[in-house]
Write the structure tokens for this entry.
Amino acid sequence: MSKPYWTKENFPITPIIRNPAGSLAFKCGLWRTTTPIIDSQKCTKCGLCEVYCPDEAVHKSEKGVFEINYDYCKGCGICANECPPKAIRMVAEVEESCTSES
Amino acid sequence: MREIRFHGRGGQGAVVASEILADAAMRDGKYSQSFPTFGPERRGAPLMAFTRIDAKPVRVRSQIYEPDYVIVLDASLSQSQDVTNGLKPDGAVIMNTPLTPEKVKEAGKLPKGKIYCIDASSIAMKTIGSSIANTVVLGAFSAATREVELQSLFEAVKNRFSAAVAERNIQAMKEAYDAVKG
Amino acid sequence: MSGNRAVAEAAKLAKVNVVSAYPITPQTSIVEYLSEFVANGELAAEFVQAESEFGAMSACIGASSVGARVFTATCSQGLALMHELNYVAAGLRLPIVMAVTNRQLSQPLGMWCDHSDAMGERDSGWIQIYVESCQEAFDTVIQAFKISEDREVLLPTMVCLDGFILSHTSEPVDVPDSQIIQDFLPPYKPDSEYHTLLDVQKPLAAGGGCPPAFTMEFDYKKYEAQENAKEVIRKVDTEFGDTFGRRYGLVEAYRCEDADVILAGMGTMIGTAKEVADKLRQEKGWPVGVLKLRSYRPFPKEDVARATAGSKALAVVSRAVSYGVGAPVYSDVAAAISNSGQKPVLLNFIAGMGGRDVTQKNIAQVFEQGLKAAQTGEVQSEIEWVGLNKNLVGASP
């Protein structure tokens, strides 16, 4: 069981979050069930994936290559859908679980 | 009264499964009730759905804390949650997994309850054409527990889906009914 | 079907003429079903899109004033936004029916069930009926039109169903034949000599300023209408029972005749309470009963006094708080029996705020405290918040 968010000592007078973090604090990449993989050979560097990504999880790196930040990518598939040369494919997320023999 | 708790992720059809089970129980001549955990949901988020079945009208409306049966639509959930929390000592778990009950017990993830396993995702993929295994698991539930008639589940499914989709689901449920291990 | 679906089906079978509503969780699917019914022709009604709940109630008031049978639905912030118009609707004596999927009022902000929203309207003149099941939600919407449209009443009715717990829970619901419903509930036919009815053939003015010479008397008429409503609710319910085989009453006294301890409350917690009462009687021999307050406005004083006269302890559970005095249902019950000769000891409980689950254990706790009070003639505490997390607030355990 996780640590309680509040205790009697710090229970506020109304639900106030004293140290709010933005979405950077929540690595929602854990939510993914499918993952986008960019094929850099096919990529034409048009940048549409970055434009369309609702989570700002695709960025052009210093080397000029488009990279996905898997900490935040939720696997929605919009980038793959919008990519003109179809350089992005969605693959099933592989998880260790009771579904595998490992 | 029988209390059944479903564990799934948003988008896997746990809520629909709880409703189909309640519908089928009604067709068996029983009284039933179904409801989901209440709140904002998203695809992939763990959620629970509940069904109560009884010979007389169900009057209790609190959540289910001590289920007779736990149905797990996504085995990966047992990694992060105690899916068998509150399960009655003589209760049972019906799990969507390709593993056998012995292997599941060995993995040590389910401390209590009798375990039934069915590879519902594979059956669903093969026979229905999608990996949504909710109805398939209900077929296995029927065989494992005899708490609901398979025929009533078929009727409930026909009531819910279009003819073609219902037919494929019924096929898959029949397969699960025969294939369940436990 | 879900409670929301049941409510929408009932409004459809009541053949309402106008629906104007604004979506708010957990009422949303009521409005979705109704707009679907209108779009596909199942319901020949005018669906008026509103820009807010204030707009919705305005449209309802306008439509009802021209003789339409009107239905709407809301809860929580939406009901609060309608507040001033709720008084207008009741004051103009318009038989509007509104489903309220009881949800907490902000702050704290949440979408879950408690009765604080409808409590804010309890003095408005609206009739308030709290239902326990999806079947009762369906049946009560049908009954509500007949009650509201009765000449001796002509007050709008709120059908209150617990948000999520009924709105989103599926249960078997018997939907009677449309013709039988129509025979039970004929179309709304207001009388231009009596009702607030705008008719271009018979021009009139209504809703304008009223001097002090008359206001109190108009208020009195509204008050009389609420008193009349008690008998009308009984009458409609009896006729409903004769026609459809189900009756509910102003209150339901469950195993109260020989009960030493009675739990009084409203909404879905009553279902759970009946189950627990049966278990406690069977397993422990405790003489307990449950009093369901179905009609909250008008408050069924006589029925409450009668049902509880023989008991030793009466535990009132409110799903709302009246900050500064305690709990609203408790206050109303206490006032109702204050002049009764034989009175039980009263216990005051608050439960289920913000969707806090009212469990069988919680109910058993209430009965246990009631039993202690019945035996000693005294209460332990002035008020008890059942299910409160004492690790966060309150005196240390």
